[in-house]
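Project standup — Tuesday

K.O.: blocked on the structure for the chain from last sprint. Re-posting the sequence here as requested.
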Amino acid sequence: MNYNVISYAVYLLITIGLTVWVAQTLLKNGKIFLVEIFGGDTDLASSVNKLLQVGFYLINIGYAVMALTIVNELVDLQNMLEALSVKIGTIILILGGMHFFNLFVLFSLRSKAQRTKYVAK
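H.V.: unblocked you, prediction finished:
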């Protein structure tokens, strides 16, 4: 049994699934912030939200594919699970970091939009 090939398949299924789930969650819950940032312009907010989603997919799936290689030959199930835990854990940390970065940017833009709105009154 070739554990390397099996681990590649499992790794890609899990990382792409996680990436899609996080992207969908961000798309759904981030729109309200973008609508406020763009002064109620829902069309612009939706468009920017979709563009952010595409960028999120490209970065995360691109990294996951780039990091696919497992250098050592995996000889048993234990080796395979250990290698997968490191690789999938890394992807989860990257997704978490990108999520917090997105939140930081959205809250910064929201704060700026609110300050601008109050100054204009």
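K.O.: great, moving the ticket to review. The first helix runs from residue 3 to 37. The two ends are 70 Å apart (CA to CA).
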